[in-house]
Each structure stands twice: as structure tokens, then as C-alpha cells.
């Protein structure tokens, strides 16, 4: 039970301090996929941002990627994970995650990390 209390407290601390995410857009070549971690793109988000967000889109063969803190609260509605939409010939995938610098990962790596974290948490609860 004490372990659960520690985990909850640590998650609150992250919420108080805010998230740390990569921030860049299509004007920065380092932002594109495949992404190579770059310290110059690291940013400490405001304390209201609890998620990092990555949006990748394509229109008429032109690709664009943005990575940012989710200050707007878009991910709070969606939760962690990826959502792909297609409208008017534009395909966009938006991925939300809630660990520091997680928006540097591709969708497969991101979903794998989320699944691993969920299984670990479930195992801790069962072990109690």
C-alpha cells in the first residue's frame, strides 16, 4: 500500500511541475521523422501542461511534424495514445503521452512504452 502512495505522490509532483517535452516544427529539420534526440529542442513546459504532443501530417506529398507541450489541453480529452484523421486529402496523426520527452518517440515506440508502463502498474497492484 505504501508503494501505491509513493507512485501517486510522484505523479502529482509531475503535475505540479509540469511536463518536459521536445518543441519544434516543420521549419526545423531536426524535428522530422525519424527523430534524433536533440538537447536544443528540449523544453520545460508550463505547470498546466501534463502531456506532450506530436502531430505528423501529410498533404500532397509534403510532410510536416510538430512536437510540443500540450498547453491547450487537447490530450486531456484524448488521453495517451495516437489518433489518425483524414480530411480533405490531409492525413494527420496526433500522439499524446505523459512522460518527459516522450514526444520524441514514434507511434510504435510510444505505444509500446505506454503498454509496458500499464502492465508494470497492474503487476504492482496485483502484488499488493
Automatic annotation (TrEMBL):
Record keywords, A-Z: Glycoprotein, Signal
Signal peptide: 1-18
Organism superkingdom: Eukaryota
Database matches in CDD domains: TFP
GO-annotated biological processes: regulation of synaptic transmission, cholinergic; sleep
Name of the protein: Uncharacterized protein LOC110977104
Organism for this UniProt entry: Acanthaster planci (Crown-of-thorns starfish)
Amino acid at each position: 500500500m505504501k508503494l501505491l502512495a509513493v507512485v501517486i505522490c510522484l505523479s502529482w509532483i509531475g503535475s505540479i511541475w509540469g511536463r518536459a517535452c521536445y518543441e519544434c516544427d516543420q521549419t526545423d529539420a531536426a524535428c522530422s521523422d525519424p527523430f534524433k534526440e536533440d538537447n536544443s529542442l528540449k523544453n520545460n513546459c508550463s505547470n498546466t501542461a501534463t502531456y506532450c504532443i506530436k502531430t505528423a501530417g501529410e498533404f500532397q506529398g509534403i510532410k510536416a511534424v510538430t512536437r510540443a507541450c500540450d498547453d491547450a489541453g487537447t490530450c486531456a480529452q484524448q488521453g495517451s495514445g495516437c489518433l489518425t484523421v483524414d480530411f480533405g486529402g490531409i492525413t494527420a496523426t496526433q500522439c499524446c503521452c505523459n512522460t518527459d520527452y516522450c514526444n520524441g518517440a514514434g507511434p510504435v515506440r510510444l505505444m509500446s512504452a505506454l503498454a509496458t508502463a500499464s502492465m508494470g502498474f497492474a503487476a504492482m497492484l496485483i502484488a499488493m
